[in-house]
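User: Please predict the structure of the protein below. I'd like the answer in structure-token form so I can feed it into my own downstream comparison script.

Assistant: Understood. Taking the following sequence of 164 residues as input:
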Amino acid sequence: MIYNSRSLYFLGFLACTGMMSYALYAEYILHLIPCPLCVLQRLAVSLTGVIFLIASIHNPRKNTKILYTIIIGLSSLGGASIAGWHVYLQNLPIDQIPSCGPGFDYLVGNFPLGEALLIIFSGSGECATIDWSFVYLSMPSWVFLSCMMLFALNLFTQINSSNK
């Protein structure tokens, strides 16, 4: 069965919108404060969603669709990489967990971007805390799985369109 690329791109956008909606629900209703790695994951998911939406509106042809596939692939794998690192930090032994550090806004506002990112990726104590889980998986684990599913949807859209 051949699916319409425009609808598949829109499905990716809706998935990202759902992920971001739940992230905002967790922050403002459940009062779970996002750590710096959570903020970066949100940025990656939002970027992926925006690119999916642009691709849906644009409805690209073969050559441009390859470009969208690459950009969506990089942003979704970027989100999965950040989430994977977050899961790694959450599973460190207690004696190896880094101490708590300043928040994302402070780091980005007071350090050069490269240095701020190095500090963020070195991790901090709040990044290792598991405040929420569903079916034994933490929120970063679900973000990792979701980003990989977005990557798979992206590849499926490309492969599906090349079969036409």
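That's the full token string. The chain has seven helices and two strands.
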